[in-house]
Design a protein that fits this description.
The protein contains two helices and six strands, in the order αββαββββ. The longest helix has 11 residues. With 133 residues, it is of the alpha+beta class.
């Protein structure tokens, strides 16, 4: 039998970045009309490219992230809130390759009866879609 607590611990140990998830409030800034964002989560996480997802699968010997068609996935502890489509994700501390890059949540965070971490599909955005970044 698989020790889910150990798997959870192993996955959380891979969350070496500090990520921020923001949600649009529906308001706009009076000075420039940019969307106003509220931070719903800032804490441990790992932003994984498709390659990173494969590496995690190899390290753990099992596919705990599920079948991934997303180019990027955000992995956060179960204590993190569920992200909604349109939420914005950025790495605020960690891998410098993520500096000044923004991702948007493609679909609501995956949930299931048996969970070990939160997994959220992301899409990297720039330009007009990233207004208010």
């Amino acid at each position: 039998m698989v020790d889910l607590e150990q798997v959870r611990t192993d996955l959380e140990n891979l969350m070496t970045d500090t990520v921020r998830v923001r949600r649009p409030t529906g308001e706009t800034a009076p000075e420039d009309g940019a969307p106003v964002w509220a931070t719903i989560y800032e804490g441990a996480g790992a932003l994984l490219s498709t390659h990173g997802q494969i590496v995690v699968r190899q390290l753990l010997g099992a596919d705990w992230l599920g079948e991934a068609s997303a180019w990027y996935q955000l992995m956060t502890p179960l204590s993190a809130p569920v992200a909604d489509p349109g939420d914005q994700v950025e790495v605020v501390e960690g891998d410098q390759g993520f500096a000044e890059r923004t991702w948007f949540v493609e679909a609501r965070t995956q949930t299931s009866t048996v969970e070990v971490v939160r997994v959220t599909r992301l899409d990297e955005q720039t330009g007009a879609l990233a207004v208010g970044v």
